[in-house]
Please model this.
Amino acid sequence: MNIQNNILRHYLQNCYFITGTAYAGKSTMCRMLAERFDMIHCEENYNMDTILQVVTPQEQPDFSYFNTKPSWEHYVSRPPEEFARWFFSVSEEVTGFEIAELIRLSAQGKKIIVDTNISCETLHRISQPDHVAVMLSPQSMSVERFFDRGDEEKQFLLSVIESTPDPEWTRRNFEACLAKVNSQEVYDAFLNSGFSTFVRRKADGDTREETLLKLAKHFKLI
Model:
């Protein structure tokens, strides 16, 4: 069964999406927007527990890797080409789960800010331009500063890397994986997606309030 796009746009009209590359400020902006404007905050990988109970190797073979992987060491040690293929496949496989959860949350009547990996092609079909923002950072920043954040997921992956037999090799390999999923080709596709883009040009300096204001205006929250 396919649900027509106009139906999805109606039921997702209270949802605002931020997508883009790593270390562009997506998670920070979602959190700040949620706090400032009393929005429901769907963080990256939201609803993961439910998804992992529902996925099957037949229907979602790549997402099922989280249930079948030999170890987290295996996760960070895969060849970059395979990691990138898997990463983008997972983004597609999880889209239905994200949309279903957002429809459920929308019933509460509040605005929702979503840190998402839903593709821009799908976002064009289910949302509207002033409900989607793309945040970008240069590849060098997205890779080199990936672990410079205190969030639990990034620090867990770092601890996995440091516990492998050859941490230096594993870190170089995983950074090559990150470079693949944050490549210039990926950057350019986001830049030319047709959505408004917000580029992080400096890793240092606090521009959070400035960026928050720009996003709030774009989303017509103010």
About this structure: The mean pLDDT is 92. Residues 5-201 form a domain with the Rossmann fold fold (CATH 3.40.50).
